[in-house]
Specification:
Elements (H helix, E strand, L loop, with lengths): L3 E10 L2 E10 L2 E6 L8 E4 L4 E4 L1 E6 L12 H10 L2 E6 L10 H14 L3 E4 L15 H5 L5 E2 L9 H14 L2 E4 L4 H4 L4 E2 L2 H6 L3 E2 L1 H18 L3 E3 L5 H12 L4 E5 L1 H5 L21 H13 L4 E2 L8 H4 L16 H8 L4 H16 L16 E11 L18 E11 L2 E5 L2 E2 L2
Parallel strand pairs: 1-4, 1-5, 6-7, 7-8, 9-10, 10-13, 11-12, 13-14, 14-15
Antiparallel strand pairs: 1-2, 2-3, 5-16, 16-17, 17-18, 18-19
Helix pairs in contact: 1-2, 4-7, 7-8, 8-10
The structure holds zinc ion.
The site of zinc ion has 5 residues, from loops.
């Protein structure tokens, strides 16, 4: 018996598009076809909408444990569900860091308790993300962790990174790198360029990112290990990854909405909401990120959702922490700002990131037997970003007041509607 029927949408997945109803029972898709009989099922209207595999975010900061005043796994999961995400990869820069089986278990349990989105912790590459000693990756991998990163920091030491790549290859997991050579970025608060000179704010050169991208491409070649580049922000990085892929190396990359929608000129307001790491770059970099998304150099759009409590973020620019919200605006920003077909945008937000993170239950084709992790998107709906109406516990969105096109109408997690008509159900 059908529990749930998504009626009359454009069903769009990696295999293409067709107009169909989607019937769900016991958490799985049971039938895809026209004019399906709902019986006693809950019917969600999808007319005029796209029915897609749920979105997958490779880069979410949920802040729990340790910084619950900024976000909790529950509030972040709610933001994710409202943004159309059925799975997020939680970054390990919590307090304590996710660098042991115990913290992995804690994050998984809190995610299951919230029940709004699958929360997959990433594990730290090094103990305490301190960059000195490899973390017990095997014990975390045994609990299902598939992505390891010291995000917030890059692994500075080449020898350690080489060993981590060799270790990861043996475990069948992927390393993700926050590319930042700290000896070059230290003391910087924005992109080093015309605006940093004009504003008198110390800069972070593009080379601080690009040097680590090129180093890790070389280490991937040396070890055969898989590497995923996080939040690429410069034209040079995009070109390096393009060449590495052309050479057949096992590299993938993500970019964030703020790096294809905003530039360093925003910092002229001195508003710390525009402070992020890697920093907002130039028009040329924005164009290169867009080109990389269009030609397949960049595999995924990731949010780098980074909530900060108002009292910490509203500090002078050089004292404020880095980061901005992303989960509830990512899809709409992509639909509004990228000149790509919706199928290409969904590839970047769903099945390609699902493949990188090794999440078999997400991003797959909408066919009978698959887990019913789905989102229903109204691609024409317009809405205005209001920081006080976001589900995140924090308010640090740089898009306040912006009108965006494209909205998530419903999100279904393992057959349960967790968002109906853009309202969270729990
Ligand atoms: Zn990062």
């Amino acid at each position: 018996m059908t529990d749930l029927l998504l009626r009359g949408g454009r069903v769009l997945d990696a295999n293409g598009e067709r107009l169909a109803d989607v019937a769900v029972a016991d958490g799985r898709i049971v039938e895809v076809g026209t004019d399906l009989d709902p019986g006693g099922a809950t019917v969600l209207d999808a007319a005029g909408c796209v029915v897609a595999p749920g979105l997958v975010d490779l880069h979410t900061h949920l802040r729990e444990p340790g910084r619950e005043e900024a976000e909790t796994i529950e509030t972040g999961s709610r933001a994710a569900a409202l943004g159309g995400f059925t799975a997020v990869v939680a970054m390990p820069n919590t307090e304590p860091a996710i660098d042991s089986a115990g913290v992995v278990r804690q994050v998984v349990e809190l995610g299951e308790a919230a029940g709004l989105c699958d929360v997959h912790p990433s594990g730290a590459i090094t103990v305490g993300r301190a960059g000195e000693q490899l973390a017990p990756m095997a014990e975390m991998a045994a609990l299902g962790v598939r992505l390891f990163t010291d995000d917030g920091r890059g692994v500075q030491n080449e020898r350690l990174m080489r060993r981590a790549l060799e270790y990861a290859a043996g475990l069948g997991v992927t390393l993700a790198q926050h590319c930042e050579v700290e000896t070059l970025s230290a003391g910087g608060h924005m992109h080093e360029g015309s605006w940093s000179s004009r504003l008198g704010i110390p800069g972070i050169p593009a080379e601080a990112e690009e040097l680590m991208v090129v180093r890790d491409i070389m280490l991937s070649r040396l070890t055969g290990g898989r590497i995923h580049f996080q939040h690429l922000s410069t034209a040079g990085s995009v070109e390096l990854v393009r060449r590495a892929k052309a050479a057949g190396l096992a590299v993938t990359a993500e970019a964030c909405p703020h790096h294809f929608t905003l530039t360093h000129a925003e910092v002229a307001s001195y508003d710390p909401v525009f402070k992020v790491n890697p920093p907002l770059r130039t028009d040329v970099d924005v164009a290169a990120i867009k080109a990389g998304l269009a030609d397949g150099t960049i595999d995924a759009i990731a949010t780098d959702h980074a909530p900060h409590a108002q009292e910490t973020k509203e500090a002078p620019f050089d004292e404020a922490p880095c980061g901005m919200l992303g989960l509830e605006t990512a899809l709409a920003l992509a639909l509004t700002e990228l000149d790509l077909a919706i199928g290409q945008i969904l590839a970047l937000l769903s099945w390609q990131p699902a493949a990188i993170a090794g999440l078999a239950d997400h991003g797959g084709p909408i066919v009978p037997g698959r887990p019913a992790n789905l989102c229903v998107i109204d691609p024409e709906a317009t809405w205005v970003v209001d920081p006080y109406r976001l589900a995140s516990r924090s308010r640090n969105t740089p898009y306040a007041g912006r009108t965006l096109t494209g909205r998530v109408r419903h999100t279904v997690l393992r057959g349960t509607p967790v968002v109906i008509d853009a309202e969270a159900q729990r």
